[in-house]
Amino acid sequence: MSINYSAALKNTRMQAVIDAIGSGGKMVIGTSALAGATGVLATLPMSSPSFTLSAGVITLSGVPISAIASADGVAAKAELRTSADVVVVSGLTVGMAGTDFIINATSISTGQTIQCTSGSIAHSP
Questions:
Q1: Which residues, 6 or more positions from 87, have their beta carbon under 8 angstroms from its beta carbon?
Q2: What value does the mean pLDDT take over residues 43-52?
Q3: Distance between CA atoms of 69 and 44, rounded to whole angstroms?
Q4: Domain ranges (residues) in the chain
């Protein structure tokens, strides 16, 4: 049996994510080994507020966001962090289509501009 939340509670929970990221939040793009400082390819600053909220879905605002890659590798994961590098959301997917966040390339080289053009996270179920 699946668990279902009211629309109001979904919005409250997703607003808590936005609030936890706060001002100066960042999206960290990394390899499949992304964890803390391991596997980081690029750190993209997010606008404030970082997301908009509608019907239990938060959508990245201020896009596109971009940064210069600091390492070589294949982008596979993303984390949303506070300005103090506290992980708020992990296990997000990145790619050029069909992922949580859309980026301009997945094969990353140091010095390359990495750009995120869109992304969203839906409350489930």
A1: 79, 80, 81
A2: 97
A3: 9
A4: 7-122
